[in-house]
Amino acid sequence: MVGTVAKDVTTEPELLLERSRAITVHGSDKEGRAVVRIVGEYFPARALGGRAEEALKAHLRKRVLPEVGEREFVVVYMHSLVDRGDNFPGLGAIRAAYECLPAAAKERLRAVYFVHPGIQARLFFATFGRFLFSSGLYEKLRYMSRLEYLWAHIDKGELEVPECARRHDDELERRPLMDYGIEAADRCSVFDAASMDTPASLRSLRCS
Q1: What gap in Å lies between CA 182 and CA 176, rounded to an integer?
Q2: Phi/psi class of residue 7: alpha, beta or left (left: φ > 0; alpha: ψ in -120 to 50)?
Q3: What's the rounded Cα separation, in Å, for the pair 104 and 89?
Q4: pTM of the predicted model, to two decimals?
Q5: Hey, what domains does the chain have and what are their CATH numbers?
Q6: How high is the pLDDT of residue 125?
Q7: How far, in Å, are 124, 130, 202 from residue 168 at the CA level?
Q8: Distance CA 49, CA 70 (A)
C-alpha cells in the first residue's frame, strides 16, 4: 500500500489575512535584521470574526517565519486608525499567536516598534502589559509616537509606509495634544474589555 503525504491546506481565514497584507516582511533595519510590518488598519478582524486567532497562527507559521528564516528580526506595528469593531483581532488572539511561536523565533525577535500608540495604549500596557505578555516580549516594546523616530532604526527606503500612517502622522503634527489624550482623535482606543477578551473593565481608558 502506497503511503500519502498530507497536504498543508490553506484555509479561507488564512487566505483572507494573506490578501489583506496586514502582516508582511519588508527589508531590513539598520542592523541588518528582517522587518515584519503589521498594519493594524489592514487587519480584517470583522470578516474573520472568531477565526482571527486561527488565521494569525497559521499565517505566522506558514508565511512570515519561513520568509524571515534564521535571521534576527524586528516588528513594526502601525496602530494608526485602528478601531475595535473593524480591524482589531483582540489581545487574546495576539497573545495566543505570539505564544505559539517556536522558542528560537521568540529569541530572534529583537524589538517591537509600536507606531502611534497614543496615551490610552501607553496607559494600558503600563498597567496590564506584564500580566498579558511574557516579560521577554514586554521588554522589547518600543513606542514610536512619530514616524520620524522610526527612521533612527530603519531606513525610509526599507519600509513601505501605508497612507493611513502618513495621514495620522500629519494629524498628530497639527494636533499634538492628541498624544496626551487632551484632544480626542476621530476614533477611540481599542484597549477596552471587549477587545481584550478579559473580564476586567477598561472602559475608562477609552477616549471620549
Answers
A1: 9
A2: beta
A3: 25
A4: 0.80
A5: 12-179 (3.40.525.10)
A6: 83
A7: 21, 28, 24
A8: 32
What does the DSSP assignment read for 89-141?
A: --HHHHHHHHHTS-HHHHHHEEEEEEES-HHHHHHHHHHHHHHHS-HHHHTTE
3-state helix, strand, coil in the chain (%, to 5): 50, 15, 35
Q: What is the bridge-based pairing of β-strands 73-78 and 34-39? A: parallel
Angle between helices 52-59 and 12-20 (to 10 degrees): 70
Condensed to tens digits (0 to 9), the pLDDT of residues 116-166 reads 987 888 888 888 877 777 767 889 999 999 999 999 999 999 999 999 999
Tell me the C-alpha distance between 54 and 57, whole Å. Answer: 5
With beta carbons less than 8 A apart as the criterion, state whether 23 and 59 touch. yes
Query: Which amino acid would we find at residue 180?
Result: Y
Q: Is the pLDDT of residue 67 over 50?
A: yes
- Determine the Cα–Cα distance for residues 179 and 168; give it in Å rounded to an integer: 11
Q: What separation in angstroms does the CA of 92 have from each of 53, 183, 193? A: 8, 29, 11
How does pLDDT run across 103-120, given as a tens digit for each residue?
Answer: 999 999 999 999 998 788
Residue located via cell numbers 476614533 = 187
Residue with cell 524589538: 111
